[in-house]
Amino acid sequence: MNNKRLEIYKKLTDLGKKITNLNISELQKLDNRKENIVNTPLIQLDYSKQKLSNEGKKFLFEIPDLIDLRESLAALFEGNIKNPTEDKKVTHTIYREADPQKDFRIISSERKRIKAFLNKNLSDRNIKNLICLGIGGSRLGPELLYEFQDKSGPIDIHFCSSYDLLEQKQALAYCNQKETIAIISSKSFETREIMKNFEYLKAWYEKKPGIDLKDHLYAISSNKTAMTEHGFRKENQFEILESLGGRFSIWSAMSIPAFVNSGYAAYQDLLEGARLADSDTLTSNWDENIAVILALLSIWNCNSLNINNHGIFSYSYKLRSLTKYLSQLNMESNGKTINFKGEETPFNSSPLVWGGYGIEAQHSSFQWIMQSKTGTACDFISINDGQIESCASQGMLLSQVLAMTFGERNDDAPYKSIKGNNPCSILQLKSGNLKDLGYLLALYEHKIFIEALILGIDPFDQWGVQLGKKIVSKSSEDKEHLVKYFSNNFLPKS
What is the pLDDT of residues 5-51, one digit of tens each? Predict the structure, then answer.
């Protein structure tokens, strides 16, 4: 397999050299752009503005069979893929099955408890605020889902994770203890940032006489022992599998905060969309398979074109936090160079994934994309549902794609010349509902898994993140640790 990967890498670099001096507008003349559109009931992909030759495209669609992709996808959906460096099963796709079987019945039982909680009428308790303590996947996913929905409802949601506590301090200024509940989300229930926020929150509740703290606190974690030791009632605990990676946890109880206003049916819509993406990814032909195409394009742009950054720009206010979510998903998964055998992979792995809400990004970072020396590959993501707001944003999106890909030459005023040639794909949701979003997020998960298979790396660990945590812990326990490396002027002032 390693020899196969080396052959794939060499072929990709050779094909890239052949089109070095060509641009996207020239390549598009050689191709039928309609062939580079994939349509599903929930989402549509247009990758006709990629810097991709017909020969390159042909080879890309040979790669899935070279790595036995169909077999690996089937194993993933059956819960038979392992995270080899941590010796854990990979379970995020099991969480969206309609009725998980075998070793995963705990998912079904927890889903019943999620349903019971989300279908409660919290207004009976006069609850007006929910404080959500979580970081990384425990925050980015629920916050994205919350923003995607109509936020009007009886309960205001406040997401907090800042280590300086200012985010929570500002949120609590608008809250009353008796009218506020809190959900503490931490897979390990040891995350330093969240535990610090939790202590601050408890002190805030205790300022109010007559408050029974246990009535107001809920926890989501894989560590049942820690939840109990911290005083959470059993009925206020939601358990996730220890094998569920934080950045893949959006399908579990971790998303409860996003649905306290919209209810369990909305949560089910999210899961249904993801299930459809699972089915399409497993069964579709490679050239009609959006997850596969996205993965292959990423591999192509990084290795054939040597483009080391990938911009993701959403053109819907409902999707304004999407880039943050996908950035963690991609870089924490595939930002690695060592393969399963402990050798350095020849491939360039994950690019820098950045971007943001497109309407804002146009006025900050697009200038750099248009006229800097550095090429950028881009995904433009929108909701094209015929609504007035969507139509305006979609027109803006398409215009920016043309500017980035085709550019404009100006011999009279060279400083006005735009080089173009930045490869762009367009993904559009056909409606603004949660099924479409679930489908999109699951597609990106599969894209990342497929990339990792090609690269020969483990997308489910995060040892780089763990090192940062390890040093923080050591510095906290040993006050002299930082003194060894930094001037006194830079040490924390107490």
Answer: 999 999 999 999 999 999 998 887 755 567 899 999 999 999 999 99
Number of residues written out for the chain? 494
Residue 322 is part of which domain span? 2-84+269-462
**Residue 76 maps to a domain:** yes
Are 287 and 433 in a shared domain?
Answer: yes
Distances (CA, A) of 163 to 380, 470, 493: 33, 17, 16
Q: Tell me, yes or no, if 97 is annotated catalytic.
A: no
Given the residues 102, 207, 234, 363, the one annotated as active site: 363
pLDDT in tens, 386-402: 888 888 899 999 999 99
Q: Helix %, strand %, coil % for the chain, to 5?
A: 55, 15, 35
Q: What is the pLDDT of residue 31?
A: 54
Phi and psi at residue 131, in whole multiples of 5°?
A: -95, 125
User: From the candidates 332, 336, 445, 451, which is the catalytic residue?
Assistant: 332
469 is catalytic: yes
Structure pTM?
0.95
In this structure, is residue 471 part of a structural domain? Answer: no
Instruction: Give the sign of the dihedral formed by CA 426, CA 432, CA 434, CA 435.
Output: negative
User: 221 near 186, Cβ under 8 Å?
Assistant: yes
Query: Contacts by 103-107 with C-beta closer than 8 Å and gap 24+?
Result: 103/79, 104/79, 104/241, 106/239, 106/241, 107/241, 107/252
Low-confidence residues of the chain, pLDDT below 70? Answer: 1, 30-33, 102, 494
- Whose structure tokens read 């752009």? 33
- The CB-based long-range contact list for 469-477 (8 Å cut-off, 24+ gap) reads 469/192, 472/192, 473/192, 476/192
**Residue 82 is a catalytic residue:** no
Q: Identify whether residues 251 and 318 lie together within a single domain.
A: no
Residue 227 in any domain: the answer is: yes
